[in-house]
Amino acid sequence: MILSSQQESKFSAALSKRFENEGVHSFMENFEAVAQKHEQRRQKIKKEGDVDNDKSPLEYRLTIAEKLQGITQNEYELLYTETLYTIKHKIGSITSKYSGGENDLYAYAQEAFGLLSEDHQRLLAKANEEKPPILILNVEIVEAKDLEAKDANGFSDPYCMLGIVPEIRKFVIPQQGNGGNSGGGMSSDEEGANVTSPNDNKLGFMKRLRSFRKSTVRRAQGREKNHSTTGTSPYSVLKDKLPAKYIQTTDVKKATLNPIWMEKFRFAIESGKTETFHLDIWDHDDEFSVFEAAKKLNQVQGFKGLNRYFKQIAQSARTNGSTEGSHIDDFLGSVNLKISEIPSTGIDKWFSLEGRSENSKVRGQIHIRAKLTTREDRGVPEEDNWTDIKQHVELLQIFIDHELNKFKGEKTHWSGELSRDAETILHQHAIQGDITDIQRSMCRWIAYSKKHLERTLSNRLLLSITEQLEQTWQSKSLSRDESDMLTEAFTLFLNYCFKQLTKIREIFPANNKTSIERLEQLLTIIAKLHGMEIFHYCCPFQNDLQFEITSIIKAGTVEWFDRMVTQITKPRLRSDEDTLRNTSELVYVIIADAHSAVKYYNPIFESIVKMSFYNISFKKIDGKLGDQIHQSPSKLLENKESDAADILTFAASAEQISLSLFELYLSLHELAKYRIYVNETDRINLKITQYHNYFGAAVKKWLSVARNKILYRIERSVEKDKVEGSTTTAYNNKFTNSSLDVSNCFSQISQFWRRLAWPDIISSITYLIKITEDMANATRLYATLVEGKLNARKFYETNDLSYYTHELSLTVNDIERIRESFKTLPIELSYDKLLVAAEKFHPIAVVDEYRKKIETTVAMCSQEITDRIYQILSKVVTNVEMELKQNLFHIIEAPELISFQDATQPLFTFLEKRIFPYKEVLIRQNFTRLLELVWSVLIDQLLSEIEKASTVRSTSSYTRLTKALDSFVDYFNSDEQYLPKDLLKTDKYKLIKKLLKYHTTDTHSLIKLYYQEKLHEQERAVIINQSSNLPDLGKLYCRAYYHLKEETLYVEIISCKNLKPCDSNGLSDPYVEVQLCPKFLYPHIEKQQTSIVKKTLNPSFNEKFEFRLTEKECNLSGGVIHFTVMDHDLMWSNDFEGEAFLEISKISGIPHESNSDTRPLDELKQIELSLTHPKAVRSRIIEILEVRVSDKTATEFVRRRRETENQ
Predict the structure, then answer these.
(1) Distance CA 235, CA 539 (A)
(2) Topology classification of domain 135-167+241-316+326-375
(3) Domain boundaries defined on the chain
(4) How far apart are CA 1031 and CA 1008, in angstroms?
């Protein structure tokens, strides 16, 4: 974008021409308009991102569903037939959850399958022809509690015997012979039983063969038994002859009243639903008696003959062991459960144990789980229900479809609940097919997840079904076929979810509350699936979730970016402005996306899957966008040649490109702010971090054009003021339109810089210095032009300024306004913050150089403009200076008979008439400057009159002048004139005040003041000598001490150093004179001196002097010790080396509050005094005393001091 010098001149000339044609507000205003447009766009993005919209999002109008393979018509009819068969042979008692009407179920099935009546009847007849299923009872004996203790150790050894008996009938138990009787072989709970008692209907013990064998072996190994005389083992007898399907038993649990079995049993119900499930609990004592009794089961002919042997088994068990007495099985209780009363949902409850008669005393409870199922006699293994599982999934899908078709609202609002009829059919199908809970959860998940691929169900529903699947899962509870089926469903569902995430911006728009909730649910489902044991069991080789989602986010972001590029850059252009404009539009789209990602997507991803969506997405966009904008700004102004004939077209195009570039810059600047949300490791590698590098040349061009525009605007504005002249009302009566226009230029530059917010600190300082220098030149140009306009009206050639009052005021006001605008410009440009930030990249010394350059540029320009204002205003003061001095002269020379007010009033009247009219047309700052100039004239004239040596005035005259000066201060500092006191009390004013004080002071007091001045001069001797280029006269070292009791002042002259050479040999012969001054305070004290030390500039004296003084004399105000160092000369008069002074009242030993040092003279610290020369500083006191020729004290004092000065 860097133009050649020839192009630069053409470009500037063309832009200047455009300014003339289009008006002076065409360039910076256009940039500000672009900035405002950018701000509106930014606020719109933020506002749209904050919209909380509950409308249905785009997700459910997007077709990305998987096409699933359906079932054939034949399979469809077979499934319907199976459904009718299930309804016809439903089992279990009806609960409130399920429907009991067979016809209602038929009607629902027909409606769900969508079959005609004739098809329904045909298939129903076919179902009726099928052989009825075999009813199966599945029982789980879980545990028992609080059983009765039968053994001596306070426990029992309980076990259960359970079985199925037909419908209850009354029967008689035959009496046993061979030593047995009706009572001897019964346990206590059987006594009193008779053939007519209802307790005779209790069932006997039944035992499952396999479990019984295991129990027999374990008991044989764990108890001491005498089987040595038995020829055949009980185990082998029962193995061959006991019918296992009639009776089954649990293991024996030793020494417990709360046994836990957790054993499952399965019974086939062959004679219908009128049978009863019966269970007894016994305390085991002699297993052999049980075997012998149980062998009689071989005589049972069929299931119905089992009843009459029940009590015989029990009695036989007692009789067999009656001779020993200790081997008796004790009855602990029983439970009866009618098959017809078992609900279809099964039973899971605690049963209280019952006795055999009303007199039986049993206690305790047993926990039983029981449920019914069926088995069809189709020649397949009983445990194989794979066909039932597949049918269950298909049936679920049909019912889901039917319920969705009936649902009138949004399909995504469907809760997933099926009708009562549907749930009844599915429930019956599950229990008749012996489908387990995990299989049912699997079928439900597969059906709903596959249906979701077709009709998009609620993610909340899918999450609930997923959680149910997780809750019912048990390790290795699925067959290989079931696992494969679930694996396929998992894969289909996840692929569908991943496709949704790929289009996250379209399917889950961030400004839609509902869609964000669904996204959260979707991610929760995915995360839950990947965290489930069943998922890893079925999909052991699935990629890590974070890897999958990272790949999906990247692919989705790239696809979205490419689509946005295609949509925005449609083939309808191709000018450079269009290219830039489209790139800006793309960036704004990315900003909106970044805003949504930060505010909505990223928190969800971080919370659920522990990943940063924004970090992955923004990095991908950054790379793609970097490639996209690489060619946009970098070459648009390069190599653009313009013919002279087409120079205006070239300028217009270049200006439009500049505006388009600025818009692109602002959009990229806004986008770059979002890099803060990328983690620090990746942030430094983002291309967006260096976005400003594309615009370096453009910024230089913008600032260059802005400078030229402002200079041109200044010329036009001032010219316009000249043309309009007095016919146009000045802005606010104190400014012209040109100052307002130029001041706005400066504001626009500041606004442009703030809008630019250039991110590179180092180059920002360079730009800032350039702006400051350009605006300083613009300020000088404006001041020169408006002053030139005033000069053109021959302002400086006239003595009558009344005609120019308003124009002069406008001129200085305009200049001051522009000066103020320029002076505050660096502050508005935030130069201080920029320089502070630069300290991180530059040494402080370099930054200070930058600061100094900026502040110096501002200060020099401001001072130059201020001097111009003073120069213009000084014409007003010069015009009235003579009359001003005359009025002041009348005050000074007024006779004492004239009152002070009468003497000063003419001056104040003159000021109000000739000066204060400017107050109405000058701004306050300029009116203050005018008053400063007037004050300066008054002070200069007053000082001149006071310093006139030839004039001798009375003390009262000086008193009047002092009063007049105070009245001047009050007048100029009043609320009407508002000249600050710090401007009034200048150095000349302070000098006048001091001189007036001196003139009104008596001679003795003046002499005291003189010595006080000499003390101050001595303290500043080093500074004075350096500033006045006088040589250092050396140092005097001494000690001084006052002895109160002796009333003696002791002074010790120790030495001098670095004296000036007075002799031709380069040395001196110094000595020191010591005198107490002023003389009129110590008339009785004579001057003393040391001995002479030859040929040295550093003499050592070590001489002590005594002065008799009272305490009162020591504390006299103004008393000093005057040390005079002289060079002794035999041939000529002695030469003056220097003098020093020591205030007496501050000497050690003199009693006063600030002095408590009472040490001896030898122990006191030596005092260093700088030697001075009386000519070093002009003494106003000497000059005033010199005028008092009639005062002998003054005349004598002045004579001695003049002599000293002349040495």
Answers:
(1) 47
(2) Immunoglobulin-like (2.60.40)
(3) 1-51+567-694, 71-130+388-566, 135-167+241-316+326-375, 875-1000, 1003-1206
(4) 27
Q: Which residues contact 1059 (CB under 8 A, 6 or more apart)?
A: 1033, 1034, 1068, 1070, 1097, 1098, 1099, 1125, 1137, 1138, 1171
Can 135-167+241-316+326-375 and 1003-1206 be said to share one CATH topology? yes
What does the longest C-alpha to C-alpha distance in the chain come to? Answer: 179
Taking the C-alpha atoms of residue 779 and residue 821, their distance in angstroms, rounded to an integer, is 9
Q: How big, in percent rounded to 5, are the helix, strand and coil portions of the chain?
A: 60, 10, 30
Whether 146 contacts 365, CB under 8 Å? yes
| Half-sphere exposure at residue 1157, Cβ-oriented, CA atoms within 13 angstroms | 16
Average pLDDT for runs of 10 along the chain of length 1207: 45 48 61 87 80 52 52 88 88 71 88 90 89 88 92 90 72 40 37 38 36 35 38 37 63 93 88 80 68 45 45 47 51 89 88 83 91 72 75 91 88 87 88 87 91 85 89 82 89 91 90 87 90 87 88 93 85 71 90 92 92 92 81 48 44 73 90 90 88 86 86 88 52 80 89 89 90 94 90 68 77 93 89 87 88 93 94 87 86 80 86 85 90 90 79 79 87 79 87 88 91 87 58 88 91 93 88 93 92 93 92 90 91 87 90 58 81 82 86 89 83
Of the candidates 300, 303, 331, the one whose C-alpha atom is nearest the C-alpha of residue 318 is 331
**Residue 1093, helix vs strand vs coil:** coil
Q: Which long-range contacts (CB under 8 A, 24 or more apart) does 703-708 make?
A: 703/767, 703/770, 703/771, 703/774, 704/8, 704/12, 705/12, 705/15, 705/27, 705/655, 705/658, 706/27, 706/28, 706/749, 706/752, 707/774, 707/778, 708/12, 708/15, 708/16
At 443, the amino acid letter reads: C
**For residue 447, what are its two tokens?**
């059906």
CATH 1.10.287 for the 875-1000 domain, yes or no: no
Using a cut of 0.85, tell me whether the model's pTM lies above it.
Answer: no
Cα three-residue angle 1043-1048-1050, rounded to 5 degrees: 80
Closest CA to 314 of 200, 236, 397, 230: 200
Residue linked to tokens 């505050």: 824
Could you tell me which CATH number the domain at 1003-1206 has? 2.60.40.150
